[in-house]
Amino acid sequence: MTAKQIAEKRYVVKLSDEERERLNMLVRAGKHPARQLTKARILLKADASESGEGWRDCDIAAALDTSVDTVARTRQQLVEEGFDAVLVRKHSPASARPRIFDGAAEAKLIALACSKPPKGRKRWTLQLLEEQVVELKIVDRASDNTIGRTLKKTFSGRIFGSNGSSHRMPTPRS
């Protein structure tokens, strides 16, 4: 074997006429997410069927300004998971962290933040709120950062005059 011998492709892309036409329409329309368009272009360039171009991964990567790994993963995904799996982005509900404060716990936190602070304190701090929500068993654990984000999201806190309620809109003069 020589050093320049070309390795046989493990994942060969062979598109049907229908799949190729679908990808061409997708690319021509151009009104789809960039990731989806890139994958469609990769598949069109990598198509090794009679009607396809059959480009090498490095040439596809250079032409589409992407990485060789992206091209290889797209080939692999087509062979292993099918045509539709390449174009549709997978969303795993397990990928996002579960929220610490649900609606009821959030309401209790807001009520606590709007209440009078403990004796000897002028106002609530995020650390005090953190200790208090755990002590009152509103949540099992929470960081002061999480509490700050939750209060900021709901426009509640000592700097907001309305503490979460909607602002009054001036009535127009007649």
The 3D shape can be described as elongated
Report the order of strands and helices. Answer: HHHHHHHH
Percentage of residues in DSSP E strands: under 5%
Number of strands: 0
Mean pLDDT: 83
> Could you give the distance between the termini?
91 Å
Query: What oligomeric state best describes the polypeptide chains here?
Result: single chain
The residue fraction in helices comes out at 40-55%
* Secondary structure tally, helices: 8
Cα gyration radius (Å) = 28 Å
Q: Main beta sheet, described? A: none
Coarse structural class:
mainly alpha
Detail the poorly predicted runs: 1-5
Short description:
The protein has 174 residues and is mostly helical. It is built from 8 helices and no strands.
Please tell me about this protein's structure.
This protein has 174 residues and is an all-alpha fold. Helices cover 49% and strands 0% of the residues. The longest helix is centred in the middle third of the chain and has 14 residues, at 68-81. It is elongated.
